[in-house]
Amino acid sequence: MANAPTDPSHRLGAIDALRGLALFGVLAINLETEFRVSIFRQLLPSSPDPTLNGVIDAALALFIDLKAFALFSFLFGVGLAIQFDRLGTSARRTRLLVRRLLALLLFGVIHLVLIWNGDILIEYALAGLVVLPFLFAPRWMVVVAAAVFLIFYVLQPTLPTLISFPNRYVLVALVNAANQTYANGSFAEVLALRVQELPAFLPLHLYVFPRTVGLFLTGILCWRSGLFTEVAGRRRNLLAIAGFAAVAGGLVLARHTHPSAALASQMVLASGYAALVIAAEQTSTGAKLLRFAEPVGRMAFTNYIVQSVVLGLIFYGYGLGLFGRLGSAAGLLLVVTIYAAQVVVSRLWLTHFAYGPIEWLWRAMMYGRAPAFGKQDLQFTG
After folding, report:
1. Are the CB atoms for 103 and 362 separated by under 8 Å?
2. 66, 120 contact by CB (below 8 A)
3. Closest Cα to residue 184, out of 327, 289, 316, 302?
4. For residues 342 and 309, what is the distance between their CA atoms, to the nearest angstrom?
5. Whole-number Cα distances in Å, 272 to 138, 210, 296
6. Res 2 pLDDT > 80
7. Strand partners, 353
8. What pTM did the predictor assign?
9. Which helix (H) or strand (E) holds 258?
10. Contact between residue 71 and residue 199 where contact means Cβ atoms under 8 Å apart
11. What integer is the mean pLDDT of 45-56?
12. Distances in Å between the alpha carbon of 110 and those of 113, 118, 119, 151, 204?
C-alpha cells in the first residue's frame, strides 16, 4: 500500500553503508570539536600543533570535517526522493511528507534543548520543507536549483553578507564559560549554557543552509538518475574513476588558500567518497567489506541521538566531566570504541526488530499509526 511504512528489507546496501560510514565521521567531528572542547575554540586563531594531537586534528579537518555532514545532507535528499517515489500517486503524499519533516523538527527541538545544542535535525527539517516542492518539479528545474544553492554557498566568502558572526571577545567568553560549566556544571547549569550559546550557533547554521538545500537537491537528482540502482559493469568502473578523481581534486582544493576553494573541497571530497562507496558496493568483495556499516546506517537516527546522549554523559559535569581534559588522540580512541559498540548493538537489534526505536517512532508519527516493530510481527501487503 502506498500509505504504509516501507518494508525495511527493501533497502539498498550502498545507501545504508554510506549513511553508516558518514555517521562515523559525524561522531568523530562532534566528539573532537564540539563535545571534547568548545566548538567556538576552533573559530579563534591558533598556532600549529606538531604533536600527535595536532596531526589528528589536521587529518580530521582535511578528510572528515564537514565532508561527513555533506554526505549526510546528500543522503537525506536521497531519502526524501525514495519516500516520495514510494508513496506513488497517493493523495496524501504531500501531507505525509510534511508530517515526516514536522516530526523531525520536533525531534530536533527536543535534542537541541535537552541533549545537545549542536543539533542538525532542525536545519534538516527546515531545508526539507524548502526542497519539498522540487520533488514535484521537472529534472531541469531541480538541476538549476541545486546549482544555484551550491554556487551561492561556495561564493559566500566573496559576497556581501548579512550574517553577523560573533567577534573575538564573544568567542573567548563563550569558550571560557564552556570550560567552566560543561566540565563541572549540573544538568540544569549545562542546559542553561546550551540555551545561552544558541545565538552564536545561529550564524553557523545560516551560513551552511544553502549547502544543505543544494545537497538535498543533489541527492534527489542522483536517486532519480539511477545512481544507486543502475550501477554495473562499465558504469561502475567509470564511477570508481570519477570517485578517485574527485578525492584527488578535493584534496588539491583543500590546500588552496582561497575560502571558496575550501568550501568547494568539502563537497568535491564528499562526492568522491560517495562514488567510491557506491562503486565498491557493486562488487562482492566491496559489499562484504562494507557490510559492517549497513546496520549502523539503517539505524542512523537512533545512533545519532544515542551518540549525543553518551557523549554528554562522558564530557559534561553531570556525567564524567571530561570536557577539556582529553587530547585529540584519546578522543579518537573513544570515537572508535563508541562506533564499534554501535556496530555490534545495531546488528543485534536488527536481528530482532524491523527498525531502530527512533526510526519506528518517526514512522508512527508520519503515518499516524504504529508500524510493526518486531520482525516476527512484520506483515506487508506491498
Report:
1. yes
2. no
3. 316
4. 13
5. 26, 20, 21
6. no
7. 374
8. 0.93
9. none
10. no
11. 91
12. 5, 12, 9, 33, 20
* Cell numbers found for residue 61: 579537518
Taking the alpha carbons of 161, 263, 63, 282 in that order, is the dihedral positive or negative?
positive
Q: Determine how many CB atoms are found less than 10 A away from the CB of residue 344.
A: 13
User: How many angstroms separate the CA atoms of 69 and 57, rounded?
Assistant: 17
**Per residue in 254-289, is it b (16+ CB within 10 Å) or e — as a string?**
beeeeebbbbbbbbbbbbbbbbbbbbbbbeeebeee
Q: Terminal CA-to-CA distance of the chain, rounded, Å?
A: 5
Q: What is the mean pLDDT of residues 297-301?
A: 97
Q: Sorting pLDDT into bands at 50, 70 and 90, what band is 376?
A: low
Written in H, E and C, the secondary structure of 291-351 is HHHHHHHHCHHHHHHHHHHHHHHHHCCCCCCCCCCCCHHHHHHHHHHHHHHHHHHHHHHHC
Burial (CB count within 10 angstroms: exposed 0-12, middle 13-18, buried 19+), residue 83: middle
What is d(CA 124, CA 133) in angstroms, rounded to the nearest whole number?
A: 15
> Can you give the pLDDT at residue 380?
41
Question: Which cell goes with 285?
Answer: 568483495
> Average pLDDT, stretch 168-176?
96
Q: How many helices (H) and strands (E) does the chain have?
A: 15, 0
User: pLDDT tens, 20-35?
Assistant: 999 999 999 999 999 9
| Phi, psi of 353, deg, nearest 5 | -125, 150
Give dist(CA 283, CA 308) in Å, integer. 34
Q: How many residues does the chain have?
A: 382
63 burial via Cβ count (<10 Å: 0-12, 13-18, 19+): middle
